[in-house]
Specification:
Layout (H helix, E strand, L loop, with lengths): L1 E2 L2 E2 L8 H13 L2 H8 L3 H15 L4 E3 L4 E3 L1 H22 L10 E7 L1 H18 L3 E7 L13 E6 L8 E15 L1 H7 L12 E5 L19 E5 L2 H9 L4 E5 H10 L3 E3 L6 E10 L6 H16 L6
Parallel strand pairs: 5-6, 5-7, 9-10, 9-11
Antiparallel strand pairs: 1-2, 3-4, 7-13, 8-11, 8-12, 8-13
């Protein structure tokens, strides 16, 4: 289509290989030499030039049995394309992840509790070793859509691996969820010995996460005198620590409190649930090295510092 003396091209984008063929023929003034440079048969180059001319509605070369000459239109087109093609080739040659050291931005999402417990050391070690990678963390209790939000990697607590075929999930650790309470609360309200004893107690439980399921055998939530529900594990742990009730906490959140004596286990033979820590990434053929290497750092860290006791 021509408007105001300029030609505009409608429809699908032009194949970059056709442009490379055009540049090679112009620079060598020979279909044979251009084909040798491109490493393709002469017939392939001829078809590429014919296809480009048809696509543009222009004659780019005048051909004789002995010579090839670029038309005026072809010279103008070459002047516009040659520099751009060189920049494209240079960019592709220097694309991130082609070299030995990873580059680019690593986008990670997880819940704040796991981030503070696990990812602090993992991110610090990773960025110290590969400083060319920028790390962008999204900490939220909501389930993030990995594809929509362009996330490279999610660290999630799950009872079962995701069944989404567009995702790849790798188990990197295990977490036990058990009952804990502050010594002051138990001194005030007594120590429960069986699940039925919890009917006389206050319970702190969590919403919006599949990992915190009730003790096996309870239909919905532990029987209790009162319930306090929340959707943030650290806030729930603080409530338990303050003596507000008996709480269901993942073992990694209670570990230091057990050492300090600010929390004690309640009915320790009961495990509320066992969940797994999964690294979840989009299912794609080429995994950026920054994603693969960060997962290796995280796996090695959790092997040395497991989230749950043996």
């Amino acid at each position: 289509m021509v408007q105001n003396g300029r030609q505009y091209f409608m429809g699908a984008p032009i194949d970059l290989n056709l442009v490379r063929a055009f540049v090679a023929v112009h620079e060598t003034q020979s279909f044979s030499a251009a084909s040798a440079r491109l490493g393709v048969p002469r017939s392939t180059t001829s078809r590429a030039i014919a296809a480009l001319e048809e696509r543009l509605g222009l004659e780019l070369f005048r051909r004789t049995t002995r010579s090839v000459a670029t038309t005026d239109e072809g010279v103008v087109l070459y002047g516009r394309l040659a520099g751009e093609l060189g920049r494209i080739d240079a960019a592709l040659a220097d694309v991130p992840e082609r070299g030995e050291a990873p580059t680019g931005t690593l986008r990670i999402t997880t819940i704040p509790d796991l981030a503070a417990t696990v990812l602090v050391d993992a991110v610090a070690r990773f960025t110290a070793r590969w400083p060319a990678v920028e790390v962008d963390l999204r900490l939220t209790s909501d389930l993030v859509d990995i594809a929509r939000d362009n996330i490279d990697l999610a660290v999630r607590l799950l009872v079962k691996p995701p069944r989404d075929s567009t995702l790849v999930a790798t188990k990197v650790g295990t977490v036990q969820v058990q009952l804990f309470a502050a010594p002051a609360y138990l001194a005030r309200c007594g120590v429960p010995r069986t699940p039925d004893d919890l009917r006389a107690h206050d319970m702190i439980t969590f919403r919006g996460t599949r990992v915190l399921q009730p003790v096996r055998g309870w239909a919905s939530a532990p029987p209790a005198r009162r319930h306090i529900g929340c959707d943030d594990m650290r806030f729930g742990a603080a409530l338990v620590r303050s003596g507000a009730g008996i709480g269901t906490l993942p073992s990694f959140l209670a570990a230091q409190d057990l050492v300090d004596g600010t929390l004690v286990p309640v009915m320790p033979r009961f495990v509320v649930n066992t969940a797994a820590v999964y690294v979840v990434r989009p299912a794609r053929k080429h995994v950026p090295s920054r994603v693969r290497l960060f997962r290796e750092v995280l796996v090695a860290l959790l092997a040395r510092q497991p989230l749950s006791p043996p």
